[in-house]
Design brief:
This protein is mainly alpha-helical and 117 residues long. The relative contact order is 0.13. The termini are far apart. Helix content is 75%, strand content 0%.
Length: 117
Amino acid sequence: MHPSTRETIGKKLNRLRAGLHHAFAAHTDPPPLSSEDAALLDRVAGAIVARRMAAPAVVFLESLGPMNFLGSQALHFFTPIIDLAFQAREVQQVARLLERRDTVTRLIALIEAKSAR
């Protein structure tokens, strides 16, 4: 095999390895929430605590936490129907928040902090 061919194959393998490493990389630091998103989560947590539903809500959220992405996709699908009862902007915002893995954890922390007061 010609030496330049080995170099070419080696370079291609290195690029493939780097691409696969990037494709399967797990992000550990999620991007920060916008002020609108944080305010929405705060309102939801406040409404849950005001109705004295903190414990059932935390249990429900913890049990369905891994399914949050599927819930966001269902919200996107049912947006035309849900739009009749809620503001479309907030429905889209909730769906976008549910796509993030850390949203449910943040909401649980907010509920627990508000119910401890």
